[in-house]
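User: Hi! I have a protein structure encoded as tokens and I'd like to know what sequence might fold into it. I'm fairly new to this, so please keep things simple.
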């Protein structure tokens, strides 16, 4: 990247002016450190400046430090659009609608786990279905799946797969209003109905990790989030709506293919096919997206239920007595209606986050009551070799980035390139040598997800901490990993 083309707003914020590309309605901003910005892919810059050209966009298009090339929007992209004059775009949300992260705490420590690691990994792998085409352990009827689409975690609570504490520690309590099953195709339903409670493939995983004392950056905040002992065991779940969300995105990209001409929309990239937010097509897609988002919350909850069952069997103690509780669950690929002050006037906007997470600060009404005085947990997934991180939202994010932050480490190379450079067996052995046990049904997938295929998680976390849109709380070292 040629730094001379951009304005350095601050140490870690780089602005691309409207003059960079014909049609840009607002500047684009890349949040990154000096070392990361030099390695950013030129295609990411092309994508985020294309986003800045979309109708109804407000303030600026944003790219987080983990930004890398995606479909339409870069992954790590954030943009907010006016309800009356803006658009909604599947390319700004992603195919895996509400791909997200759930973080669970336990009362266990590394000492408790040491002698049970092999058995625990084996039972987690055999209990939680993973991989391409995997089917969930809950067999659903059509009416039950419709209930899941529209009621989300309320369905899990009613059917014994969740406890009240879970709902109180999940974005939107695990149920996004506005979902309407009649906006979803039968093909999408047929793809999703058997996939609830499954990890899927790609970069999705179930990880058991440890929070070591040296990696607790803010012990007070960590304690408020339930990380209250040295060498505590944490569990993270990274997955989304699987084939269900993918089919919904596919269906509506086809629907939207005629919207540019119909509504006179200017779109630079066909991957950014859109519809006006308030159009019939836009509203139907939004309601269908909510269905997929609710299904993704349920998917992670059913995996949580399975995890609790495994830990209970392995330790011979009820999961609740082991303290296996949800710290938080947050969406990474979604569009949400939220209110922000633009040029001195409060306005409702449709905020697209693709590979980005909410990072609401203290006092925000959508932060769970238990955390409202400190800010929302921000869960950052890294590679399976380097572990994950927990941050906390800030009022700076509320003001400057539409309440948004990064979601993960961010890829540095394609999956195809990673597989050409290394073998899954070698990655598995390297992980074992570093004390990480991993189990997968698809060995090339380990090569795709190796640490050197990703940015340094500490570098991207430090970048958002320096900007002030999220505060560092803790890092987690992986011990066990189930991969699709």
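Assistant: Happy to help. Inverse folding works backwards from shape to sequence: for each of the 484 positions I chose a residue that suits the local structure. Here it is:
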């Amino acid at each position: 990247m040629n730094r001379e083309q951009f304005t350095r707003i601050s140490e870690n914020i780089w602005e691309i002016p409207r003059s960079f590309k014909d049609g840009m309605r607002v500047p684009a901003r890349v949040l990154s450190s000096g070392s990361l910005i030099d390695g950013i892919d030129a295609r990411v810059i092309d994508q985020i400046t294309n986003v800045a050209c979309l109708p109804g966009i407000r303030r600026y298009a944003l790219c987080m430090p983990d930004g890398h090339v995606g479909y339409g929007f870069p992954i790590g992209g954030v943009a907010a659009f006016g309800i009356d004059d803006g658009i909604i775009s599947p390319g700004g949300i992603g195919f895996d609608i509400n791909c997200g992260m759930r973080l669970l705490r336990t009362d266990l420590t590394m000492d408790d786990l040491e002698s049970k690691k092999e058995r625990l990994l084996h039972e987690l792998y055999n209990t939680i279905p993973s991989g391409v085409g995997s089917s969930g352990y809950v067999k659903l009827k059509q009416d039950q799946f419709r209930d899941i689409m529209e009621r989300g975690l309320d369905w899990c609570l009613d059917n014994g797969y969740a406890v009240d504490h879970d709902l109180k520690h999940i974005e939107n309590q695990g149920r996004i209003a506005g979902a309407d099953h009649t906006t979803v195709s039968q093909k999408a339903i047929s793809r999703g109905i058997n996939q609830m409670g499954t990890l899927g493939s790609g970069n999705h995983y179930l990880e058991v990790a440890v929070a070591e004392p040296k990696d607790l950056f803010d012990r007070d905040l960590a304690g408020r989030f339930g990380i209250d002992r040295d060498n505590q065991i944490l569990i993270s779940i990274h997955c989304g709506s699987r084939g269900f969300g993918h089919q919904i995105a596919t269906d509506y990209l086809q629907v939207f293919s005629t919207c540019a001409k119909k509504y006179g929309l200017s779109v630079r990239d066909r991957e950014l096919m859109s519809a006006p937010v308030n159009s019939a097509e836009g509203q139907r897609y939004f309601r269908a997206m909510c269905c997929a988002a609710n299904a993704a919350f349920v998917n992670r909850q059913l995996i949580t239920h399975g995890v609790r069952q495994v830990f209970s069997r392995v330790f011979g103690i009820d999961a609740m007595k082991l303290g296996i509780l949800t710290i938080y669950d947050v969406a990474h690929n979604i569009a949400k209606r939220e209110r922000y002050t633009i040029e001195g006037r409060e306005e409702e906007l449709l905020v697209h986050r693709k590979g980005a997470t909410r990072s609401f600060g203290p006092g925000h009404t959508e932060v769970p009551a238990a955390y409202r005085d400190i800010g929302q947990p921000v869960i950052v997934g890294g590679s399976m070799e380097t572990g994950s991180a927990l941050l906390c939202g800030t009022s700076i994010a509320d003001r400057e980035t539409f309440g948004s932050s990064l979601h993960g480490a961010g890829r540095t190379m394609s999956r195809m390139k990673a597989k050409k450079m290394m073998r899954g067996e070698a990655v598995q052995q390297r992980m074992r040598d570093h004390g990480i046990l991993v189990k997968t049904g698809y060995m090339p997938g380990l090569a795709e997800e190796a640490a050197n295929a990703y940015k340094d998680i500490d570098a991207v976390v430090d970048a958002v901490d320096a900007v002030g849109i999220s505060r560092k709380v803790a890092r987690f070292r992986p011990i066990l990993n189930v991969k699709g």
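A useful reference point when you look it over: The radius of gyration is 21 Å. Feel free to ask if any position seems puzzling.
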